[in-house]
């Protein structure tokens, strides 16, 4: 178990365990996180899950509820988390990760009803606007 801090002061315990649903590498439960043991050194994954913990602390229990009932909310939450995760990479690797994460976001797993292209555009847009920027111009995806 490790402790990481979000917003500099809020401690988040990280439990490394294989007690997770199949095919899940990590999961944020809000105030704590579980990461599959195999991924213990995967910092981008940890940042993804810490982003979900931040989302939880922004709204407390309401985030979990909205995440379950609203596809729009779940989409926004995952785009933010995957954008943070992708931003751990640079150059070609960054673009490869954005493609991969777009496929994840648009997969059955999240049941969001969005295309891979839409997820890709939103990820690029998020990174350009809120994170390190400079990936390039992206077409209108509305
Ligand atoms: Zn996520």
Key features?
globular, 5 helices, binds zinc ion, four-stranded mixed beta sheet
**Helical stretch tally:** 5
**Could you say which overall geometry the principal axes of the C-alpha atoms support?**
globular
If strands are numbered along the chain, what order do they take across the biggest sheet? Answer: 1-2-4-3
Give the end-to-end Cα distance, rounded to a whole number of Å.
42 Å
State the secondary-structure class: alpha+beta
Give the fraction of residues assigned to helices. 40-55%
Mean pLDDT, all residues: 91
Number of domains: 2
- Strand portion: 5-15%
> Could you tell me which ligands this complex binds, including any ions or cofactors?
zinc ion
Structure characterization notes:
The protein has 142 residues and is α+β, with helices and mostly antiparallel strands. The protein folds into two domains: 60 residues, no CATH class; 73 residues, no CATH class. It has five helices and four strands. Strands 1-2-4-3 form a four-stranded mixed β-sheet, covered by helices on one side. Helix 1 crosses helix 2. It is globular, with a radius of gyration of 15 Å. The protein starts with a strand and ends in a 12-residue tail after the last helix.
Q: Which helices and strands, and how do they pair?
A:
Blueprint: E1 2-6, E2 10-16, E3 26-28, E4 33-35, H1 43-59, H2 61-69, H3 71-86, H4 91-105, H5 116-130
Parallel strand pairs: 2-4
Antiparallel strand pairs: 1-2, 3-4
Helix pairs in contact: 1-2, 1-3, 2-3, 3-4, 3-5, 4-5
């Amino acid at each position: 178990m490790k402790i990481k801090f979000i917003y500099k002061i809020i401690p988040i315990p990280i439990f490394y365990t294989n007690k997770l649903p199949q095919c899940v590498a990590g999961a944020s439960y809000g105030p704590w996180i579980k990461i599959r043991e195999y991924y213990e050194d995967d910092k981008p994954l940890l940042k993804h899950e810490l982003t979900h913990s931040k989302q939880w602390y922004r709204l407390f229990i309401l985030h979990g509820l909205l995440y379950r009932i609203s596809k729009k909310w779940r989409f926004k939450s995952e785009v933010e988390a995957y954008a943070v995760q992708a931003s751990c990479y640079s150059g070609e690797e960054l673009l490869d990760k954005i493609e991969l994460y777009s496929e994840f976001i648009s997969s059955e797993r999240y049941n969001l009803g969005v295309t891979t292209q839409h997820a890709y555009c939103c990820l690029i847009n998020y990174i350009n606007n809120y994170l390190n920027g400079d990936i390039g111009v992206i077409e209108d995806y509305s």
